[in-house]
Amino acid sequence: MERASFELRDDEIESLRARLQSCSNSSSRSSIPPPRRPAADETITFEEWQAKHPCALTNFTKILSLLKGKRLAVFLDYDGTLTPIVPNPEDAILSDEMRAVVRGLAQQFPTAIISGRGREKVENFVQLKELYYAGSHGMDIAGPQDIKHAAGSSCDSSFQPAAHFRPLIDKVYEELCDRLVSVPGSYVEHNNFCVSAHYRNCPGESWLLVVKAVEETLAGRGNEELRITRGRKVVEIRPKVNWHKGTALNHLLDVLGLKAQPDVVAIYIGDDRTDEDAFKVLLENNQGYGILVSSKVKETAAKFTVQHPDEVMRLLKGLVDWAASEDNAWQGEGAAGSIWQPERRYDAIGATGVDKSATLVSPLLSRSADPDDDAAAAGTVHTKGVELHGGMESSAEQLKWKEWQQHMGHREYPGSS
Hints:
It is an enzyme of class 3 (hydrolase). The protein has helices at about 10-25, 45-50, 60-65, 95-110, 120-125, 165-180, 205-220, 245-255, 275-285, 310-320, 350, 375, 400-410, and strands at about 70-75, 110-115, 130-135, 140, 185-190, 195-200, 225-230, 235-240, 265-270, 290-295, 305, 360, 385-390.
């Protein structure tokens, strides 16, 4: 039977507090953690849990049926979703293959990364200017750089709802660093509008010390402006503002003119408990579907699941392939006049990771004339149509889905075999 993941829950934090109090009043310490109540979903098998939250890959055809005739917007967590969880947070570098897939996705659908990390740090990891980025659990949002939208001007979506907390967060960071300097394996991360204390690399007996340091740092400043949240082997101090990944998702949909539109479906993919806020917003507003990344049984508001970042990549590749379909409303009149516009470019290496053989470019919205464009740098000659290596050129008319399949060779959707 699969069990829930190792992230701390409310009852676990209460147990830790109780142990800390007993340790301070007793000369002896117990290395055995107290028993805890199982979560509701921990009493079922993984197969039973996945029946409630089906695999997005094996149900990809169903997902496509839900997207038929809709404009898709994609929202992604970073750590544990686009990259595996790693011992050192500074080593969570995006792979070249995943970067190519996300680039292809962002060319066809409005795409955002919403992370608990600082926004600049995530931008440095990802290195894609086509994306919308929301750092600090959505408290620091910025739109794509140098991207012209349908109206002809850059979309200004910069927003920092907790900006006035920054001086306080700076002080909390310094204090927490001082408190944890002697705790082996601990790591304090400044994420602009929140501070994260990681204990993934700490020996088990030091986990309590990390939690205690966070609790004492918060207690020393009162409990009026800051709060504690938990994630996967991390405890965080954040401002007490009514803002989270779900509200950030809503803000971005609003900025893009996509909020509460009947032909818009949003997909959010994430692995951590803070991503549940986004899953719940989509569910409550009937705006789309959450996809949880987890190989463990856990309570979730997500509709679908995948088990690890490799499966996320397969799923995203499938969406990039589907972008050329007539079922994608961004292909038709539904995109006319929208704030965001697709580039209508289908890059074989971006979609599948195989050698590039063709590129479909919109004659109106092409960025391929940019000398810094990756394909241009690779020596591909672009014209207003479908370009093949060697200068062969086809009609400028947009390829239909079946023609595209014939041109590229038939490719099965993920999970179809």
